[in-house]
Amino acid sequence: MIRQVGILLYPDFQLLDVAGVTAAFEIADTLKGGAYHVTPLSLHGGLVRSSSGMALDTVACSSNDFFDTFIVVGGEGHKRAMKSPELLDCILKQSRNTRRICSVCSGAFLLAAAGLLDGCRVTTHWQQAEFLKLLFPKVKVEADAIYVHDGVVWTSAGISAGIDMSLALITQDLGEQTARRTAQQMVVFYHRPGGQSQFSALLEMGGGEERFGTLLGWVRSHLTQRLSVETLAARVGMSPRNFSRAFRSSVGVSPAKAVERLRLEAARERVEQSSLPIEAIAAMTGFHDPERMRRAFLRAFGQPPQAVRRNANIRTSCWR
Q1: Which site among 90, 110, 137, 293 is 20 to 30 Å from 43 CA-CA?
Q2: Is 116's pLDDT higher than 50?
């Protein structure tokens, strides 16, 4: 069975959003023989110019078309595109005639503007996540996920994360073996878990003030200590109350959340790259209690440490 994949473009779309997704389905189709057919779409058809200046030829989007998978890409043009009633109506009509609807990067804004993401867990590029929350408060934005699957809706983070999402879609359709071989052909990892952070926690939380960036660097080197608000406030010479308020304003999360993120990053690295017992990793990263670490992993990554380790082993064996 050939699965029809429609990819919606608009002026100033991001070329790599399209290219990465298309390449994944193209290679899977070559491996499996007649598995996918990809059609680039636009509102009126014809050439559509990307933000890089390169243009792609497209087919006019029609409500009579059936696509197994309908994907809306991101790009600088999403700000204008989401204000087009005609384009949003096209997306809404296509959503009623597809098995699953997806977005890459800021394409999530168009799905949200069409009313398709209310109540859904979604992600987008980390730089756009807060704005997505602000514009669409009914949407449950998971700012640091690579991709999120919620029912028939799939959303992915910036640019290359569309490849991760596509490999997950291929896994759902054709199985792990085909998706793994597709990843090998593309020279990318077969599976980065959907809940994996888009970037280093320390880089994310650097904040606008040097003192907090320095403090976070110190925290990462002292994860086994008791890192209370009082301890952290004393490090920067502030009262606990003023520290909590200033820290959240600068870094964007509470001190406790920042400490947990740094502990999670360190724990995940050890879980994936060592054979140390989970109990030992919990102790050396400041969680102390393995159950406490397990709950933190479930909140952040959607899976316990043991599953994270299994996935890491699968990725490693894929390249041997």
Answers
A1: 137
A2: yes
φ, ψ of residue 144 in degrees (nearest 5) = -110, 15
- How far is the C-alpha of 125 from the C-alpha of 153, rounded, in Å? 16
pLDDT(314) > 60? no
Q: List, for residues 20-59, the tens digit of each pLDDT value.
A: 999 999 999 999 989 999 999 999 999 999 999 999 999 9
Q: What does residue 286 show for φ and ψ, rounded to 5 degrees?
A: 90, 0
User: What is the rounded CA–CA span in Å between residue 298 and residue 284?
Assistant: 19
Indicate the burial class of 239 (C-beta count within 10 angstroms; 0-12, 13-18, 19 or more): exposed
194 φ/ψ sector (left φ>0, alpha ψ -120 to 50, else beta): alpha
Q: With contact defined as beta carbons under 8 Å apart, do 293 and 285 qualify?
A: yes
Residue with tokens 């050890």: 270
